[in-house]
Design a protein that fits this description.
It is a single chain. This protein is of the alpha/beta class and 585 residues long. It has three domains: 241 residues, Glutamine Phosphoribosylpyrophosphate, subunit 1, domain 1 (4-Layer Sandwich); 179 residues, Rossmann fold; 144 residues, Rossmann fold (3-Layer(aba) Sandwich), CATH 3.40.50. The chain is built from 19 helices and 25 strands. It has an eight-stranded antiparallel beta sheet, with helices on one face. The chain has a seven-stranded antiparallel beta sheet with strand order 5-6-7-8-12-13-14. A five-stranded parallel beta sheet has the order 17-16-18-19-20, with helices on both faces. α3 crosses α4, α14 packs parallel to α19 and α16 packs parallel to α19. The chain is globular, with a radius of gyration of 25 Å. The termini are close together. The mean pLDDT is 92.
């Protein structure tokens, strides 16, 4: 979940590393630090946000052309300066940063303490620095010592390490993302592409169980397990620009990314689903696996497949512990980052049991894209805000196109071309949503309801609101209210009804009346006069085909959550306790 950067080249390393760390602040962190190698290893680190740390520490005093940096999200040990990365060995000559969790940390630490190693932090990461020191005593070639140490580690990791007097930076990864940036006379490591986009758009994506070392002008790849050097891979050119990862005048990345949907919906419709269709044609049964927002996209995909006459299911990645696989089962794994730990574990489990995997992701070269049998890229571009907005609608567009193409409904795929213009109409009413958000911001409890295809949209709307406002929000299939949740309703509690005109509208009107009878306050997002008449607050939606309504109806819910968060003084880009890429279980 943390951010890693590394640099070696002709420029001042501390400046590049600091700027790069700021570009991955969206990942969530509680401390930060930088180490630079010159005649010795120098480190500056502290708990807190980078802006606050800069007031106490002058990173520009770190002189040298080679360094590593880190933003930490605590897993082992409290949030303090000692536990912040980078960490060193006993000699101070080996320095290391790490994402992930070392599962056999206690066992290895005990072994090292028995050999005389002294620890200054509570972290599992520091243990790795001492393990490197111990392995180097056995074999002075640092690459070999590094591989030997990594091989002993159980768990998830991306390591980046330096040694005083050595002109290279070393890295390895397992279950945590790590990319190598290839520049002109300079090289980079990073946990995320946007960290180093201003310097290069050419990347080598480290594969599962792979290690690497870089100098200013060269790189080498290795197998961790066998220690053998591998053939170099041609770097992948990424068509993202640094400007795509900037706010471009918006107050927050979240609102910028919400507004980008008028173009990303169109871009995602151009995605090539051909390989996915070929794979799914062979399936007797299709299981979609995803987490969080991507799971709600999967629920809608499941319904689209059902309407196409295909047997399917949708399962949370974290609940995909076992499965009964029929022959020719296909697993569709959906993850914005392609690095979601629970989803990747499900993918690996499915492949071990003979299933083929189709990946749906936003990130070229991600773990999911490499481990899947086929992959479709949603083409949403970098999404910086922690909460998903444009990636959700892009996932829906691609999944809809996939299901409709599989069902040979070319006319419906053609009709999807109108969605971008309809999204633009909704976004043009942003100020109207802002005014509604200001009226609702004083409330403490919210209930989102929908029927049919609108139920997953209600789930996503409730998730967005609680993620960034920290208010209580729940979502229900509207018909379920009478089976228990009505007991929670009392005067003034907002019911947010997602209600496009469709066959379920009369029943939804009845559900709304049930809520009003308990003195709840109804906010309707609808194009139906029958629904809007029942609402105290309303947002009138443009006409859209009922089957495509989820792609459009989620947009006002994103705007509502955003404006409520801002009204309440919360940072919508960096919600507390959350991170963009959930790379731990």
């Amino acid at each position: 979940m943390c951010g890693i950067t590394g640099y070696i080249g002709p420029k001042k390393a501390s400046e590049i590393i600091l700027a790069s760390l700021k570009r991955v602040e969206y990942r969530g962190y509680d401390s930060a630090g930088i180490a630079v190698s010159n005649s010795k290893i120098e480190i500056m680190k502290d708990a807190g946000k980078i802006a606050d740390i800069e007031k106490k520490l002058d990173f520009s005093k770190l002189e040298g052309n080679m360094g590593i940096g880190h933003t930490r999200w605590a897993t082992h040990g409290t949030v303090n300066t000692q536990n912040a990365h980078p960490h060193t060995d006993c000699t101070g000559k080996i320095v290391l940063v790490h994402n992930g969790i070392i599962e056999n940390f206690a066992e290895l630490k005990e072994e090292l303490e028995e050999k005389g190693h002294k620890f200054s932090s509570e972290t599992d990461t520091e243990m790795m620095a001492h393990l490197l020191e111990e392995e180097e005593r056995k074999q002075p070639d640092f690459m070999r010592a590094f591989l030997a140490a990594v091989k002993r580690v159980e768990g998830s990791y991306s390591f980046v390490a330096m040694r005083q007097g050595d002109g290279r930076i070393y890295a390895a990864r397992k279950s945590c993302p790590l990319v190598m940036g290839v520049g002109k006379g300079e090289m980079f490591f990073a946990s995320d592409i946007p960290a180093v986009l201003p310097y290069t758009r050419d990347f080598v994506f480290l594969e599962e169980g792979e290690a690497a070392s870089i100098s200013a002008s060269d790189y080498a790849l290795y197998e961790v397990k066998g220690g053998k050097e591998k053939e170099k891979r041609k770097p992948t050119h990424v068509d993202w620009t640094p400007q795509m990862a900037q706010k471009e005048g918006h107050a927050h990345f979240m609102i910028k990314e919400i507004f980008e949907q008028q173009s990303t919906i169109r871009q995602s419709l151009a995605a090539d689903v051909g390989e996915g269709v070929k794979l799914l044609k062979k399936a007797k049964f299709i299981t979609t696996v995803a987490c969080g927002t991507s799971y709600y996209a999967g629920l809608l995909f499941k319904e689209m497949l059902r309407q196409a006459g295909r047997r399917s299911d949708c399962v949370l990645g974290s609940e995909y512990l076992s499965g009964i696989y029929e022959r020719d089962t296909i697993v569709v794994a959906v993850s914005q980052s392609g690095e979601t730990a629970d989803t990747l574990n499900a993918v690996r489990y499915a492949k071990e049991h003979g299933a083929s995997v189709l990946g749906i992701t936003n990130v070229v070269g991600s773990s999911l894209s490499r481990e899947a049998d086929a992959c479709i890229y949603i083409g949403a571009g970098p999404e910086i805000a922690v909460v998903a907005t444009k990636s959700f609608t892009s996932q829906l567009v691609v999944l809809y196109k996939l299901a409709l193409t599989l069902a040979k409904k070319k006319d419906m795929v053609e009709r999807m071309k109108d969605l971008s213009a309809i999204a633009e109409i909704v976004l043009s009413k942003n100020e109207e949503i802002r005014a509604l958000a200001e009226k609702l911001a004083a409330k403490k409890d919210f209930f989102f309801i929908g029927r049919g295809l609108s139920f997953p949209v209600a789930l996503e709307g409730a998730l967005k609101l609680k993620e960034i406002t920290y208010l209580h929000a729940e979502a229900y299939a509207a018909g379920e209210l009478k089976h228990g949740p009505l007991s929670l309703l009392e005067s003034g509690i907002p019911i947010i009804a997602i209600a496009p005109s469709d066959a379920s509208t009369p029943k939804l009107v009845s559900n709304i009346k049930e809520c009003k009878a308990r003195n709840a306050s109804v906010f309707a997002v609808s194009d139906s006069d029958a629904v809007l008449r029942e609402a105290e607050l309303k947002f009138v939606m443009p006409q859209v085909d009922a089957v495509f309504a989820p792609i459009i109806y989620v947009i006002p819910l994103q705007l509502l959550a955003y404006h409520m968060a801002v009204k309440l003084g919360k940072d919508p880009d960096k919600p507390r306790n959350l991170a963009k890429s959930v790379t731990v279980e």
